[in-house]
Amino acid sequence: MNTSMNVVFTGGGTAGHVSPMLAMADALTKQYRDTDIDADILMIGTNEGMEAELIPDAGYSFATVPKVPMPRSLSKDLFSVPFRLRKAIKRARQLLREHQTQVVVGVGGYAATPVYLAARAEKIPVIVHEGNVRPGLANRLAARFAVVVACAFEGTVLPGAIHVGMPMRSDITELPVGPTMKSEARLSLGLAPDKTTLVVTGGSSGALNLNNAIAGSLDELLETGAQILHLTGREKTVTDHQGNRIDKPGYTQVEYIDGLARVYQTADLIVARSGAGTVHEIAAIGLPSVLVPLPIGNGEQEYNAAGLKEAGAAVVILDDDFTPQWVASRLPELLRDQPRLEYMAQTAKNLGIDDAAETMATIITETKVAR
Question: What is the percent of the chain with per-residue pLDDT over 70, rounded to a whole number?
Answer without folding.
Answer: 95
